[in-house]
Amino acid sequence: MRIGELAALVGVTTRAIRHYHHVGLLPEPARRANGYRAYGVRDAVLLARVRRLTELGLSLEEVRDVLADDAGRDLADVLEELDADLARQEAEIHERRRRLAVLLAAPPGEVEPVSPALAALLAKAPATASPAAAKDREHLTLLDAAGGAGEELYAALGPLAADPAVLVLYERLDELADAAVTDPRIPGLVADLVAAVHDELFAAVPADAATTAGEGFKQALLAEYAPAQAEVVRQVMEAFMERGRG
Length: 246
Description:
Distance between the termini: 84 Å
Shape: rod-shaped
Protein name: MerR family transcriptional regulator
Pfam families: MerR_1
Mean pLDDT: 83
Keywords: Coiled coil, DNA-binding
Low-confidence stretches: none
Organism: Streptomyces antimicrobicus
Largest sheet: none
InterPro entries: DNA-bd_dom_put_sf, MerR-type_HTH_dom, MerR_fam
Structural class: mainly alpha
């Protein structure tokens, strides 16, 4: 058989056959006097096996191992590895589709590329136009993307997110947008913000959260706020660090 006849018989392209020759997967056959390759039935059988193995998802290197003599790997071992890899891919695809389903179920205009746990948490929060609340949402989204929060923390945040009284705290922080860092409203707001974080929620926060974030992140976070607001946030952070040491 000529290469075109072999390709048609097995159902591959002549280019694939030449590539298999190039990488040493398919032995070069003898050539006729005119220089054309002359393929036999054994070549067709071998090529058909290569095709079947690649269709199963084996790489050419894995196919070479399977086709090798004593030094080769057993086909069953290779297929078991392939099956395990496909199972992992299947699980990953299932999880991605689950996350997409949560996003697609969100009201128009409220779709955020976040984890299902954070999406469920954000859905509990009352609608608000508070700039401070919007910042908190952004910070949670960042924490979520960085993998710094888990379902335990989101579950603990649930009651707080759904509490309408929290909106009042956000509004009080918004009111400090043009205030001085010596504004007398700051101490009271700091105390109320700290008190709003119940023990279960505080316990759900990773113990090394402050250390992991680093001083650079802390300064960048404070820079997001007006001076008086930043002072509130700074004092709240210090209160939580002290609480963690206690």
